[in-house]
From TrEMBL:
<dbReference type="InterPro" id="IPR051546">
    <property type="entry name" value="Aspartate_Ammonia-Lyase"/>
</dbReference>
<dbReference type="InterPro" id="IPR008948">
    <property type="entry name" value="L-Aspartase-like"/>
</dbReference>
<dbReference type="InterPro" id="IPR018951">
    <property type="entry name" value="Fumarase_C_C"/>
</dbReference>
<dbReference type="InterPro" id="IPR024083">
    <property type="entry name" value="Fumarase/histidase_N"/>
</dbReference>
<dbReference type="InterPro" id="IPR000362">
    <property type="entry name" value="Fumarate_lyase_fam"/>
</dbReference>
<dbReference type="Pfam" id="PF00206">
    <property type="entry name" value="Lyase_1"/>
</dbReference>
<feature type="domain" description="Fumarase C C-terminal">
    <location>
        <begin position="406"/>
        <end position="457"/>
    </location>
</feature>
<dbReference type="InterPro" id="IPR020557">
    <property type="entry name" value="Fumarate_lyase_CS"/>
</dbReference>
<feature type="domain" description="Fumarate lyase N-terminal">
    <location>
        <begin position="12"/>
        <end position="340"/>
    </location>
</feature>
<protein>
    <submittedName>
        <fullName>Aspartate ammonia-lyase</fullName>
    </submittedName>
</protein>
<dbReference type="InterPro" id="IPR022761">
    <property type="entry name" value="Fumarate_lyase_N"/>
</dbReference>
<keyword id="KW-0456">Lyase</keyword>
<dbReference type="Pfam" id="PF10415">
    <property type="entry name" value="FumaraseC_C"/>
</dbReference>
């Protein structure tokens, strides 16, 4: 193997012997040494599947030679199997619309196809990145299609992680259902609730987000592939648009359909904004849930300590025996990152002009990375935090019994003003609500025992015993 020289419209360049990419990729690497971050695997997979499907359909339509198409398919299958990942080298901050990454894909597949056919890399007369691998395609329809497919691939594990998290919250909710604690609103004492109901509420919230994300992703099934450069299908076979989407549906197992107007599918980033928005919405509730768990675990001596999160690592470099809610903190950081990505996606999506949005590389990375980090974070959060939570029932009961908000249950029986006076007296004197009510003759012992029954007060209406 020796270095090779390639030529493009700007001149000649020498490529390393081991490079499967070509001259256009090399120029992009030199032009965009920005972040050191390359394309995500799901994005490479999506682009490669598009190339594989296009090669098959274009060969069937006699647009490219069958042996060339078969070699491109073989090269694509190798990439899909995990080979040549080090050859996709263009920074995510690159030429607008993703042309540099697109040519990186085209060149790698062309040069590997050449080897499969027994030719040297760079012998583009036999297999050309533009004329064969990219036949009937454009960055402008390939990249938005690849974002759709990549997000659909990435959504599946996230939805699985959400389902598993929902089940873990439900299991803990049922385990903790007998435990009565003080509710809190505005971080002040409120009426009694059940610890289990709090966890069952978290399960419901997570399940609802699963549905929102799933619904948002359905828009991604509509593909503008076949629109070519501007949505008109220039340089494509009349049957190509429908057949290439059918081939992609066969390869992916997804119910993909051609866009009724490719120009609209290529211009508008609205489906990506909708999906990103559903992830941001999830992230916001994850921050709240993680914060709740940190509060309930605060202490151990000077905080609430109603639950104990599993200690997973020492929490201080100077304070021995300290353990921190690190999984909740990690999840919150991930959620903040997803919210930031959503803002970037919104800004990038409005930055298109006429027939093209040139900010697609940013949208691709931020959307797919949001899926990745949320999936990983939720998987770890569930396994190493939620499933190991222990309740502190005595602490919970003590807070419930000592809460001034128990006076709320007296309202229907002694009136709001009397109840407020009792609460004020209790706070001023430190005496119990029960003692003050009895002293003032507002209720009897028997009445108080029934009214201030913590078990009944904290039970949801639908779970209350039916009257005979």
């Amino acid at each position: 193997m020796h270095p090779r020289t390639e030529r493009d419209s700007m001149g000649e360049r020498t490529l390393d012997a081991g490079a499967y990419y070509g001259i256009q990729t090399l120029r992009a690497v030199e032009n965009f040494p920005i972040s050191g971050i390359g394309p995500l695997p799901d994005f490479v997979r999506a682009c490669t599947l598009i190339k594989r499907a296009a090669a098959r359909v274009n060969a069937d339509l006699a647009c490219i030679p069958k042996d060339v198409a078969q070699a491109i398919i073989g090269a694509s299958d190798e990439v899909l199997a995990g080979r040549w990942s080090e050859q996709f080298v263009v920074d995510i901050f690159q030429a607008g619309a993703g042309t540099s990454h697109h040519m990186n894909i085209n060149e790698v597949l062309a040069n590997r196809a050449l080897e499969i056919l027994g030719h040297a890399r760079g012998d583009y007369k036999r297999v050309n990145p533009n004329d064969h691998v990219n036949y009937g395609q454009s960055t402008n329809d390939v990249i938005p299609t690849a974002i759709r497919l990549g997000a659909l691939f990435a959504s599946a594990p996230l939805l699985e992680a959400l389902s598993a998290l929902q089940q873990s919250f439900e299991a803990k909710g049922n385990e903790f259902l007998p435990i009565v604690k003080s509710g809190r609103t505005h971080l002040q004492d409120a009426v009694p609730v059940r610890l289990g109901d709090e966890f069952l509420a978290y399960a419901q919230i997570v399940g609802e987000h699963h549905g929102r994300i799933e619904r948002a992703c359905r828009e991604l099934l509509v593909l503008g592939l076949g629109g070519s450069a501007a949505g008109t299908g220039l340089n494509t076979h009349p049957q190509y648009r429908v057949r290439v989407v059918d081939e992609l549906a066969r390869l992916t197992g997804l119910p993909l359909i051609p866009a009724p107007r490719p120009m609209a599918a290529m211009q508008s980033m609205a489906p990506f904004v909708a999906v990103s928005g559903s992830l941001r919405n999830l992230a916001q509730d994850l921050v709240k849930i993680a914060g709740d768990l940190r509060l309930m675990d605060s202490g151990p001596k000077t905080g609430l300590r109603e639950i104990e999160l599993p200690p997973v690592q020492p929490g201080s470099s100077i304070m021995p025996g300290k353990y921190n809610p690190v999984l909740c903190e990690m999840l919150t950081m991930v959620a903040f990152q997803v919210m930031g990505y959503d803002q970037a996606i919104a800004l990038a999506s409005q930055a298109g002009q006429l027939e093209l949005n040139v900010m697609m590389p940013l949208i691709a990375y931020d959307l797919l990375h949001s899926f990745t980090i949320l999936t990983n974070a939720l998987t770890v959060f569930r396994a190493r935090c939620i499933e190991g939570i222990q309740a502190q029932p005595e602490r919970c009961l003590a807070y419930a019994e000592g809460s001034i908000a128990l006076v709320t249950a007296l309202n229907p029986h002694i009136g709001y003003l009397n109840a407020a006076a009792v609460a004020k007296a209790s706070l001023q004197t430190g005496r119990s609500l029960r003692e003050i009510v009895l002293e003032r003759g507002l209720l009897t012992e028997v009445q108080l025992a029934e009214i201030l029954d913590l078990e009944a007060m904290s039970r949801l209406p639908e779970t209350q015993p039916k009257a005979e």
